Amino acid sequence: KRVSVVLFCQTGVYYGSKLELRAKPEDDEYWNSSKFSAFTFDDEDDEFTKMKESKRAVNSILVDDDDDDDDVEKVSWSGEPIGSISWSVKETASSFRSSGEQSFPKIDTAPSLPKQGSGYSLSSLFKAFTDTSTRAYAPELRKPKSECKDYMSDWSPEETVRRMRKGRAYSLERFRSLQDKLLLLDEAVSLHDGNVITAVLIYLKRSLSKEILFRELMVREVALRHYVHYLKEMGEQKLLLMQYKEHLNIKDEGRRRDFLKSCLSLPFSQDDAMHVQDHYTLLERQIIIEANDKRGEAEIFRKYPRKASILNMPLITTLYYSCFYHYGEPEGTFSSPANIRKTFRISEKQYILTALGARAKLKSWFDVDSLFNTKNWLGYTKKRSPIGFHRVVDILQKNNAPAQVLQEYVNLIDDPELRLSLAQKYKCHDIVIDTYKDLKDRQQLIVYQGKVERGSHEDRKIEELINNMQIRWKN
Amino acid sequence: MAQSGRRDAPELPDFSLLKRLARDQLIYLLEQLPGRKDLFIDADLMSPLDRIANVTTLKQHEVDKLYKVELKPIVSTADQLCFLIRPRIQTVKWISVNLDKAAGRLRRYKIIFTPQKLPEFFRENFLEGDQRWVGAAGGALRLIHSLYGPFSKVYGIGQCAKMVYESWREQVEDGEQKTQQPEIGNVFLIDRDVDFITPLCSQVVYEGLVDDIFRIKCGSVEFGPEVTSSDKSIKVMLNSQDKVFNEIRNEHFSNVFGFLSQKARNLQTAYDKRRGMDIQQMKAFVSEELKGLKQEHRLLSLHIGASECIMKKKTKQDFQELLKTEHSLLEGFEVRECVSFIEEHINRQISMIDSLRLLCLLSLTENGDNCLFALVQSYGIEHLLTFSNLKQMGLLVEQQPGETLTVMESKVGKLVNDKTAGKLTDAFSSLAKKSNFRALSKRLVLIPKSGEEYDLRVPRDMAYIFSGAYVPLSCKLIEQVLERDGWTGLEEITRMLNGHEFAVSADSQRIVLVMFLGGCTYSEISALRFLGRERGYKFIVVTTAITNSGRLLEALLDNHP
């Protein structure tokens, strides 16, 4: 039991309470139409009294000794532990003394630019202000009336955000001028408590016009990111890419295609625009192919019935499908592999891998063969591959290629070590023997002779070789 | 196995206190809604809740029915409803919608928010830039401080670490001052984004492997039929009480089989003792030993089953080649081969998470890549958002840095005045994060010299958790800082890690609390345990979540509506 993983143990409570709306005439030019609401307090609740009692009863070490703490229920903005309790803790606590321990110095946490973030889209803000519902929203507080006086007092921005963090009563209402509001926001940001930042932003959102809030957030990176995240969570905001992502909600492929088409005009970055264009073209293509293939008239569909529709599949899956069902079609047809390859700028490597997979699955060894054939200027065919032949062998073997086919490709592996190991794995004796011969490794040949069947063709071949004195063996 | 380490290593504080504290808090909160009530629990709070309480506890405090929060209309007819949820806007909205529906009825509601274990911390803090969890992390630190402190020294690295430190410090200042016999001396706070490389590597230490393959949830794992070799799944707690697990959790997987078969033989011998016993001896055997043996037997067969299953899965997916690629990338060796392996991995549409993982590793070790295009072609364009997330986190770097400023952003810039726009543009282009892994790895000697045999049975450094190929950057930093008692001499390194390092206060201690902000892996915990054994430290690891490559990347996926 050397190291334990400790989980965070904190709980907080959130009490529902009544909220009274009271409209006020506005004199501040920065207020927009929505009115901020004030709180009222109610101490006649017997649940509250009960709570106070039980709380006293289970008083514990973690309770602050601030003056108002005993009478106030904390709001759980920060998941602050509400007076936590335990006889066991009391036991430990008995050793506590109240003398000051050495305190830790403050360190500079001045916000600096995040190290990443080039992709962070300010553009989100354009979409951000579409739906501003004026739902009443506030951290609820319950306090006896006696505390109203305290509540109304004139806290500085700094004091206010600190109270917010501790879950004490606070009022944002008195921050009315733009300058005051921004001071409050900056104070919240410097506290590094996301809950407080968000709470202040909610207040600003309701009390400032969007143009002004937007302008101010532009120069406040941390606050801006909190704001965008908050809107995202509230479902009020859509990033460009999120707008595009909505297509995932559209089931009907025709409508999905039209939606994608409408996305083409959105101001995406160059890369993204290309991807969106490709996506549209691909879906358009898939719809055409699907309409034809659904009927499944060609023989190949009867022989290998489709397991699923091709709609909404990734590009490479589409290419595989096309290599499987539409191989050899002329380049002019939309469903031909050649056309897909060209339209979507698929690399040779990717094409060969996909086509190889599809043709090997169908056991069309002839097609496999011609994938790698190239003719030189004298008209001789030679095998060439953009992927290593050991990978080709791997794919062929997984598709149960016959020994003869496998052997041909094992033989094409350049690296003798790799060739040897695969040849041994797939029992291509001739290749093993020839490779050892090329390596002039007589010892290994003798070892290998023990592995082949006595009197077989391979056995005789090795016998012949090891007795051949014309070869200059290295051992 | 389970080496004993140095004799002068200190004893760990009693952490069962935290469990009891959490349970008492829960009871206290439940009792604040007196009388019968129905309790709604967030699905992902069920396992944590199991660690501290059980249904009997809840019943004792008048919880009538238990519901899972599913964001569907509430069917409960109870007069009092209690919600135990994580503080998510969506959930609270759902509750408030249901409040509206019940208008006109007298019903009592109570909502309990629990920021425990913060699984969303990683994404929200590092991707969305939302600091709402900083206070919670600071609060957790305060709790530990008040129970096991005072701390004598706090080190840290990372922007979030700094904020958590500040948040904790202010909370302590605001609160009651106290002194007691300190149980925890040193604290080390580290941001996950200081080291992304380590959690992206395949884990090969037993506990890490079990997590990668079966996903350990809140300290327990569900072994399916392929492990139990029956048609039932079994849930097992994985902790030091499991004697078998305790001995292999930190071991490199290659040692585990040998250990398990030795254990099996010992067990056989113990059973065999029965032969030739007389009645009296037999009676003693049954009452004293048999139960323990049976328990060990059960655990042993489970871990053997799990190991077999791991072997099967790992050989199926060409694990060797995957590992080789990872190690080559870390070493910066045969990079071209690695790139083509990754390309083929993508082209053949093999596991997308693995492809992303390799691509991020390539990007972090080699600064940039251009496989993104192929990735979209293979796994579908709906991952575009995922890629933009990865780019934003600096996990993927594209090769043309100048063009990352989107059209929309420059438009935004124009809306403001030209001066601000200029500043913004500067800011954004300077953000293109450069990974300094190669230089860091050289300076901190993260890659042991190649060519030397590495005996995994007798590990010589923390690299054993990655088969001797790589010392985890995060743990190496911790080691160096503890050794130097601060950051002196590490200036060049912190500069490459974007700074934000700090070290405050007095004399150093042997019990070190390490807090990972944004998650840590089991491998890293194993590495720290190793370091502790070697240097006579005791590490206590606090983390916002246990992570691994899968979880880390899944947190950044954005392909669902």
TrEMBL record, chain A:
It comes from the Eukaryota. InterPro entries: Spe-39. Keywords: Cytoplasmic vesicle, Endosome. It is found in: Cytoplasmic vesicle; Early endosome; Late endosome. Its main location: cytoplasm. GO terms for biological process: intracellular protein transport; vacuolar transport. GO terms for cellular component: early endosome; late endosome. PANTHER family: DEFECTIVE SPERMATOGENESIS PROTEIN 39, SPERMATOGENESIS-DEFECTIVE PROTEIN 39 HOMOLOG. This is Spermatogenesis-defective protein 39 homolog. It comes from Astyanax mexicanus.
TrEMBL record, chain B:
InterPro entries: Sec-1-like_dom1, Sec-1-like_dom3a, Sec1-like, Sec1-like_dom2, Sec1-like_sf, VPS33_dom3b. The lineage of its organism: Eukaryota, Metazoa, Chordata, Craniata, Vertebrata. GO terms for cellular component: late endosome membrane; lysosomal membrane. It is a peripheral membrane protein. This is VPS33B late endosome and lysosome associated. Belongs to the STXBP/unc-18/SEC1 family. GO terms for biological process: protein transport; vesicle-mediated transport. The keyword Transport applies.
